[in-house]
# Entry
Amino acid sequence: MAVLGVVLAAGKGERLRPLTLYVPKPLMPIPGGRLAIQDAIDRLLPLRPTRIYVVAHYMAHLIKDSVNHLNRAYGGLLETVIHDRLLGTAGHLYFLNGIVNDDDLVVVENGDVIAKVNMADAVSRHVSRGLDVTVIGYRAGVQLRYGVLNVNDEGLVKSWVEKPTINVTISTGNYIIRGRFIRLLKGEFMDMNDYINLIIRSGGRVGVYLADSFIDIGTVDDYLSLWCRSGGAVAGSQ
# Structure
């Protein structure tokens, strides 16, 4: 059983504009003097992957140049895969057909996610539980914008909770996938939620492993919050 890593770095990052008009989101600087994509790559290294593929589309030339530069530090482990159109968070994995074996593990990392995850333990549990997919999740509190009424069958209000916080398990955009399920992808657009549901309908076993921390730098506010939490100034703002 081999482990192959995939870092998704193809998206346009439209919610992070105007910053992503000049640089793709995975190449945004993060605290510690690194790029966002390096956080994703470093989560894969403890797994000793045979290869780490970086999938690019938007500003692919910048992604490729950066990967070539980073490869000096990563021992040539990285390879850029350029797609001429957006295929969705799952559809971009189609290129692995003919590369991955049925029993191999494909570990997918979102190139714009900052997370603390024990991926070695996640893979160990994935294998021991006999799972086909493990979604790396995170327990998050989501505050509703409205007051919530607890109403009984007679239409009477029993209680009122103002803007409660609901605890839910969210996806971090990182996944462990058994190689044989790559065959379900046909080179067409497909987002990960549709792909996971397809795997479930196909009889696949899907589990969850919780991350210790998770930050999505999807918006300008999220990106600034990342720097504020670190206590540093945003790169280029001084």
Notes: The first strand starts at residue 3 and ends at 9. The chain has six helices and 13 strands.
